[in-house]
UniProtKB/TrEMBL annotation:
Protein name: Glyoxalase-like domain-containing protein
Organism lineage string: Bacteria, Bacillati, Actinomycetota, Actinomycetes, Pseudonocardiales
Entries under SUPFAM superfamilies matching the protein: Glyoxalase/Bleomycin resistance protein/Dihydroxybiphenyl dioxygenase
Domain Glyoxalase-like: 2-173
InterPro entries, alphabetized: Glyas_Bleomycin-R_OHBP_Dase (IPR029068), Glyoxalase-like_dom (IPR025870)
Stretches of the chain forming a coiled coil according to its record: none
Length: 203
């Protein structure tokens, strides 16, 4: 099932302010130590959330490039999405057996503003087809971020665009997930949200 959407930006503070003006209220998530990033979150209902992630000015420059292509961005972009599974290792084994390489497991952690430590494990696919193939995440016993994220935003729809939609069908099947994808010149994710201020579309 959908875990979260990743909206990456080269300027986190400016993007958080812009989204707030458009009706999406976000709460501070926390820094990702060593990666040079931090995030803000909005709960979307049904244990899902929107993650807005960008450079953390309070961290030194990371030894490697920031995730989600943040260092190359010139404007905010909906870069990818994640699906949540109860047993990460079993889900990855099933995907490989079905012909999809979901990537290797990476352990992650961050502290919430109230000092609660969150830990999780995820796997990024080597080829995410322009962000349309989700990465897989397992939260284990850690509190899910959606439970403490800012409320007031609801996900209405999520869809994709890709030059070859048919090529994605077996990948989604291997991951036991679905995404409506229409043909377009460039890959893109498109999400529509309902807020108290009206509709917001991020791409």
């Amino acid at each position: 099932m959908l875990d979260h959407l990743v909206y990456a930006t080269p300027d986190l503070g400016r993007t958080v302010d812009d989204l707030a003006e458009r009706g999406i209220t976000l709460s501070p998530g926390g820094p990702h130590p060593g990666l040079g990033t931090r995030n803000h979150l909005a709960a979307l209902g049904e244990n899902a959330f929107l993650e807005v992630i960008g450079p953390d000015p309070e961290q030194p420059e990371p030894a490697t490039r920031r995730p989600f292509g943040i260092d190359e961005l010139t404007a905010p972009r909906l870069v990818t999405w994640a699906i949540q599974v109860p047993d990460l290792d079993a889900a990855l084994d099933r995907a490989r057996a079905a012909g999809h390489e979901p990537g290797d497991v990476v352990p992650m952690s961050r502290r919430r503003p109230d000092s609660v430590l969150l830990t999780w494990r995820l796997a990024f696919p080597p080829d995410d087809r322009g962000g349309l193939v989700p990465f897989v995440i397992g939260w284990g016993d850690t509190p899910h971020p959606s439970h403490t994220a800012a409320t007031g935003t609801r996900l209405v729809s999520l869809r994709g665009e890709h030059p070859d939609p048919a090529s994605l069908v077996p990948v989604f099947a291997a991951l036991d997930t679905e995404l409506a994808v229409t043909e377009a010149a460039e890959p893109a994710l498109v999400a529509e949200f309902a807020t108290a201020s009206g509709k917001v579309v991020l791409k």
